[in-house]
Amino acid sequence: MPLCADSPGLDVPYFLTETITAVLSVLGNLFICTVILRDRKLRAVVTNHFLVSLAAADILVGAVAIPCAQMADAGLPRGQPTLCLLMLCTLLIFTQASIFGLLAIAVERYISILKPFQYPSLMSPQNSLLVILSSWVLATFIGLLPLMGWHKPFPPDGQCTFNAFIEGTYEVYFNFVTCMLVPLATMLVLYSRIFLEAKRQIRKVAEREVDVSRHARRRRVLHKELRLATSLFIVLFCFALCWLPLNVINTLQLVCPSCPVPSPLTLATIVLSHANSAINPVVYVFRMRSFRQAFTAAFSCAWHPLPASAQVGLGSDPTLPGAERLLL
Fold first, then answer.
1. What pLDDT does residue 315 have?
2. Which of 25, 66, 170, 217 has CB 3.0 to 4.6 Å from 277, enough for a Cys bridge?
C-alpha cells in the first residue's frame, strides 16, 4: 500500500498535515505508554500489554514512518536505491505492526467476552507477550518482502518514490487483500460475535433486577446496547475509513493504469492512513475511565494516583459480566 506520495517534489500542505499527524501520534501514544508503565496495577493487566504494543507501533509510525513518507515525497534519498528501499520497508513494517495490534486487541476482547473462564489461561502474561512478539515478527517479515526482492527495477533517475520501487502486485494482492482486508474481516466477525454475546448478557442481567419497573429496565438495556453498538461501530468505522480509501486507489491504479487519479486525492488518502495511528488512542484508550482520569490529572498539573476502581483495563476482569467489561 503506498504510504507516501508517488511523485517527487515537496507538497507543502501535505508536509504540514503529515507533520501534525506525526506529532499527535507520538504524543497521544506516548501518553498511553507512560500511564501504563508508571502504574503497577495497570502493568499487571494483560489487556494493557496489547495496548502498549499498539501504542508503540503507532509511536513508530509517527516518529519514523511518517518522516520516511515525507522524505519520499521529496524524492529522497536520491541515487541510493537500497537505502530508499530500506526506508520504504521500514514504513511498511510499522504501519503493518499497527494493523496487527488492532487485530490482537480484537482477539483479546473476543476471548475475554465469550470465553471468560478460559481467559486467564489463554491470555496469561506469557501468552500475551508471545502473541505480541509474533505479530511484530510477522509485520517485519511482511514489510521486508520488497527488500528481499519483491520490488520493481531501480529507476534510472534515482528518485526515491513509493510507486517507483514497490510492485503493484505486492501493494494490492498481498498487502491490501491479505494484510488489510483479512484483518478487517476478522475484526468484523469477532466484534459481531462480541456484540451478540454482550447484548445477551445485558438482557440477562436486566432480568434479575427486581427493584426497577419494566419500563425503566428496558430503557436501561437499550441504553447499554446503544453504547455497546456505538463503541464497536467506532472501532470498525475508524479502521475502515483510514485504510480503505488508499487501498481502493491502489487497486484502481493497478487494474486501470490509464485511469486518472488526482494527486491531492491520493495525498489525502495517504494522510488518512497515517492518521489511524493518531486516532487509535482516542478509540481504544481514552474511552476508558482510568486513562481519562490520568489525562485530566496531567493537564491540571496535579497527577493523582488512579482510583482503585478505575485501575483495570478493557476486558481485564473476567469476574465482571462480559458486557460490563466491554463498556469500561
1. 43
2. 25
